[in-house]
Each structure stands twice: as C-alpha cells, then as structure tokens.
Amino acid sequence: MSQKRLQFTTKLGVIATTVGSAVGLGNIWRFPYEAGEGGGGAFIVVYLLVIALIGIPVICAEFVLGRSSRRNIFGAFRHFSPKGKWHYVGYVGILASIMILSFYSVVAGWTMEYIYQSVSGGLDYGTAASFQGQFDEFSHGNWRPLMWTVAFLLCNLLILRRGVQKGVEKMSNIMMPILFVLLVVFCVNSLMMDKAGEGLQFLFNPDFSKVTPQVVIGAMGQAFFSLSIGLGTMMTYASYFSKKTDLRLSATITAVLDTFVAILAAVIIFPAVFSFGESPAQGPALVFEILPAIFSQLPGSAVWSVLFFVLLFIASLTSTISMSEVSIAFLIDEKKMSREKATWLNTGIAIFFGALCALSFGCLGDVKIFGLTIFGLFDYVTSNILLPVGGFFISLYAGWVLDKRIFNRELADGRRSFFAWLMRFCLRWVAPAAILIIFLSQIGVL
Ligand code: TRP
Q: What pTM was computed for the model?
C-alpha cells in the first residue's frame, strides 16, 4: 500500500476540516435537545467533564493512530498489530458510520426542507406552537422527508467523488467562519428576550439531583457524537495530515470550538424556549420548532432563516463527508475498490437505511424496537453504545499497546511533554475506566 496519500494543503485546511467534521447537527440540533431532555445544567456539567477527560484524549489517540499508520481505522490496527484481533474495532466503526450517516441524513434533509420553506415564505409568520404543527405535518408526510433524505445523500455523493481534499477543504474554510458569526448574532438576540434569565438558569445552574445513569450515558454519547470520535473519523482524517501538522493544537482547537458552538446553540435555543412558554424536553423536533419562531420575530426574517439553514446544511455536509470517508477509505484501501464504486456503495446503503429512518416519523412510526422508533434506535445505539465501545478500545490500544515512542513522536516530536504524558495517562486509566463505569451503571450492575 505504497500509493501516495493525498494531503491537506494548509494549516487552516486541517483545522477547518476537522472542525467541519465535528461541528454539525450534533451541536446545533442534537446538543440542545439532549440537554433539554437531560435536565439542562447537570447534563452540561457531565458533558464538559467527558469532553475533557475522555474526548480530547480520544481525539489525540485517533490522530496519532491515523497519521502514524497513514491508514483507515481497519488498516491502522492491522498495520500495528497484524496478528491481533484489534482490527475488529474497525468493523464496529464502519457499522456505526453507516448507521449515523443514515439517520443524520434524515435531519440534514429537514434542513433542506426548511431552506425551501424559508425561500417560499412558509416560515415568515408563526409561533412556536404553529411551527410545531408545521413540523409534525411535514415529518408525518412520508414523501417529502424521504425525498430530502435521498437528495441530501446525493449531495454528499457529489462531493465525495471528488475526494476529501478538493471537496471539503475549500468549503469548510469559507463556511465555518460565517456560521460562527451568525450564531453569535442569534445568541445576542436570544439574550435580549424577556425570559432569557430562565433559559440561562436552566442551562448553567445545575441541579445535581437530576444526574441519573441515563443522563450520564446521554452526555457521554453526545460528547462522542459531537467530537466525531469513536468510529475512526478523526483517524481517517489524520491519515491525510502532513508530518508538520501539530496534533496537540489541532485536537485542542477542535474540541474547544466544537464545545463553544454547542453552548452557543443552547444559549440561542433555551432563552427562546422559556420566552415562548415551551417545554425544553421536546426531543428531536426542538430546534426545528424554536428556530423558525425566533427568526419570524426578526426584521427580514426570511433572509436570516435562509442564511441559517443553508449554513446548517453545509455544516451537515462537512460532517457526513467525514463519516462517509471512514467506510470509503476502508473500501478503497482494503478492498481495492475504485473511489467511484466505494462512494456509490456507501450512498446506496445509506439511502436504504435512511429511508427507513425518514419513514419512522410517518408510516413506520408504529414499528418500535426496545420502545424506540427506527430513527430513535439508530441514534441511541450509535451514540450511546457503539461510539463509546469504539472509544474504549481506541483508548486501550493507544494507551497500552501502541509503542510509547510512536505516541510521543506524533504528539510531541519525541520531546518530553506534559501534554503527551497527560493524554497517555487518560487513555490508559481515566477514559477506559470512566466508560466502563458508565456502562455498568447504566445496566444496573453498579
Ligand atoms: N460530529 C458531527 C456533528 O456533530 C457528526 C459526525 C461526523 C460524527 N463524523 C462523525 C459523529 C463520526 C460520530 C462519529 O454533527
């Protein structure tokens, strides 16, 4: 496998693509609804702890494994441990990436519907309650959600065919900064609402009596999901980094910016939730009901909502591209498939499962597995189980099996470094133990 791997061209390109992978629906759609259901402040405290103690170390582990092996998740494990069984972690990652791509595309499809609605004037007037009705009608409608899911996956395909570097780097460079600015503007607007105080209270005044095993596992799942870790996305991207890329800096910047965007999104949503007299625990529909209600109160509402949903759509694309690349890099490197074929295969499978997820808000709504809809099941199983399982093994591998010199070389150019020591310590002890304890308490053993 000596073919030359494409590399990201600039420093900004590296940051923008990893941040582009991390920042997406996870921050703006999933974080607010998970925090709302998890009771607000207490959820956020646990979330931040997971980011610091597990998240950043696991990003570093993925970066180290990816860049030093220059391979996809499956190939990386086989490269370092040809005889071991570690590459099975790769299968978990590939399964998770396809499952996430499927339900993620449904939500990304919703953003396309909302772009369409904004342009055609459908979001100009209304209240949170009326937008709730509008969302329900749309999502129960079967055909439209289905069509948008497929449309989104085809957009994903178009970019993936061109390869990561040409396809993603330029788009991320431009769009990510614009998204940040827009979020800050909306944040200021929300802070001026009459019940802003209640929203902030809900978010930042933790009530620790609300911390249940369910909240903790939800916060851990959200952290893995939001940082794009546990299934080899960051590993695959790091295999395209050059030797000059500073992994420490990239890992920290990615985690900090990703967390910042999630908090911004929550600060946009919750003051509005309380000002509109809505409940914070509304599940996946939350931001699609609250955001239009916020925009409709602004002067020139359609302009804001078009701009916002277009950026959200692009942020989703930069994320789905990164997760698709996990299985595509696997098919190309290990199965010797052409890029074209691999991309189509990935898209085809995601269209099939994506359709099931899209319809689970409509005609498949009664199909329940463990009490969850198909969409809910895909979401729960990937974030709360598969990603942490992947993270567990990635931590163990990087902490205990991988040669310490490789770890230090990648993270600190072989010099003595407190940061590298700390990351390795977290990967050896803190992260695996924490993940295990959280799992055990969830199933009631602890
Ligand atoms: N982190 C992205 C988001 O927040 C989604 C994502 C991209 C992802 N790649 C991933 C999630 C890999 C888990 C694993 O929207």
A: 0.96
